[in-house]
From TrEMBL:
<dbReference type="Pfam" id="PF09335">
    <property type="entry name" value="VTT_dom"/>
</dbReference>
<protein>
    <submittedName>
        <fullName>DedA family protein</fullName>
    </submittedName>
</protein>
<feature type="transmembrane region" description="Helical">
    <location>
        <begin position="151"/>
        <end position="175"/>
    </location>
</feature>
<keyword id="KW-0812">Transmembrane</keyword>
<keyword id="KW-1133">Transmembrane helix</keyword>
<feature type="domain" description="VTT">
    <location>
        <begin position="45"/>
        <end position="172"/>
    </location>
</feature>
<dbReference type="InterPro" id="IPR032816">
    <property type="entry name" value="VTT_dom"/>
</dbReference>
<keyword id="KW-0472">Membrane</keyword>
<feature type="transmembrane region" description="Helical">
    <location>
        <begin position="187"/>
        <end position="206"/>
    </location>
</feature>
<feature type="transmembrane region" description="Helical">
    <location>
        <begin position="68"/>
        <end position="91"/>
    </location>
</feature>
<comment type="similarity">
    <text>Belongs to the DedA family.</text>
</comment>
<keyword id="KW-1003">Cell membrane</keyword>
<dbReference type="InterPro" id="IPR051311">
    <property type="entry name" value="DedA_domain"/>
</dbReference>
Amino acid sequence: MTPYPTVLAQEPAGGIAGWAAGLVETLGGPGAGLAIALENLFPPLPSEVILPLTGFAAGQGVLSLASALFWTTLGSVVGALALYGIGALFGRERMHALWARLPLVKVSDLERTEEWFRRHGTKAVLLGRMVPIFRSLISVPAGVERMPVPLFLLLTTVGSLIWNSVLVLAGYALGDRWELVESYVGVASKAVAVLVVAAAATWLTVRLRARGAAARHRRG
């Protein structure tokens, strides 16, 4: 007999949802926290699947709603702290050395980015926890720039709690229709990805044109 009620009447049979459902049903809240910690470290694992599924499990009695929110937020913070540590270990000097080897970029680009993060890093970390794709990535520059750990933990906890609460409560309310959350958040994730690709393409086009114009000027 398992220590948690056998629930998830509509339990997913396989894939990421099935894996997450197995963790939650076997370990309860800590299983949900582990899944979300791994989601932070490996962004292809979608929080829009894990969190609503955890909310659905709470609605079915596998774990309490408070446990679902506590453990998923703790998992988010642990995963984010690991990425912060990677950024801190990599460090600013290594970042500059790597940047200098990249084509089509200037040291001034990185310096402007660093200056922006120094001015807006607090808002970036807090709000970044609520933006698909950037949820995980924002922890790395925070580590590179050595944002004070207590401040980073506070911002990450608040931002993660808001994001997790929205998706867990949505799954809790929707019950066996929890997959609707994945559909809507998935659209938002795709929109963010398209915007990032478009911005990168625009930046690359501008930089290539500037380099071409500079080369023609030198020849002239």
